[in-house]
Each structure stands twice: as structure tokens, then as C-alpha cells.
Amino acid sequence: MGTLEPHPIRVPMPDSIRTKAIFHGTVQGVGFRAITRHQAGSFQVTGTVRNLPDGTVELIAEGSPDQVQRFIASVEEALRHRIEFVDRCDSQATDEFTTFQIT
């Protein structure tokens, strides 16, 4: 009988946060996701950005509070002419992501 390989368990860093931001405005079809992924490269964040069926864009970012807040502020600044408003919700990080990607 073979042995089972243990699966690594990811434990989020206690000071890490997860921010889910929904961007409203003219945010689809304007390079929003590509710009967001590019901006993520300047910060120590992981997560994802995707278009939602209702015309909004969802961004989920995890990292230190400072890095996540600065990252989202940079996205808001880079795309300020496209964004009408943002709904944000912060919670404990889940360590679900290893990179930042477009989904």
C-alpha cells in the first residue's frame, strides 16, 4: 500500500489583511485589469482582479495592511477617470493566492 503525501497547510500571517474592492464606473474594456496587475508588481501583494457580469471589476488583494492600502490607492489614482466609486471590505487574509493574477 502506498503512503499518502501530506498536503502543505498555508497559515496566513497574523498581520495580513484581505481587501475586496468592487470598482464601479467605466471600468470594463479600458485595460483596468491589465493596469491593476501591472500596479501589483510594485507592491508585496497577492490576489486577483476580474470583470463581473454587472459591469464592475472585483479586486481581491492580500498582504500587509500598508502594502494592500497603498496598492489599492495606486489603482484608484491610475484609473481615477474611470472609477465612479469603490465598495471595499477588509477581513483577515486567507493566504489563498501565491501571485497576483487576472482571472
Q: Could you provide a short overview of the structure?
A:
With 103 residues, the protein is α+β, with helices and mostly antiparallel strands.
What does it look like?
By secondary structure, the protein is α+β, with helices and mostly antiparallel strands. It has a single domain, classed as Alpha-Beta Plaits. The chain has two helices and five strands. It has helices at 32-40, 65-78; strands spanning 17-25, 45-51, 57-63, 83-92, 100-102. It starts with 16 loop residues before the first strand and ends with a strand.
What would the average pLDDT be, to the nearest integer? 90
Structural class label: alpha+beta
Kindly identify the CATH topology.
Alpha-Beta Plaits
The largest β sheet comes out as: 5 strands, mixed
Radius of gyration: 15 Å
Instruction: Identify the overall geometry.
Output: globular
Keywords:
alpha+beta, Alpha-Beta Plaits, acylphosphatase activity, single chain, globular, five-stranded mixed beta sheet, acylphosphatase
List the helices and strands and how they pair.
Blueprint lengths: L16 E9 L6 H9 L4 E7 L5 E7 L1 H14 L4 E10 L7 E3 L1
Family: Belongs to the acylphosphatase family.
InterPro entries: Acylphosphatase, Acylphosphatase-like_dom, Acylphosphatase-like_dom_sf
GO molecular function: acylphosphatase activity
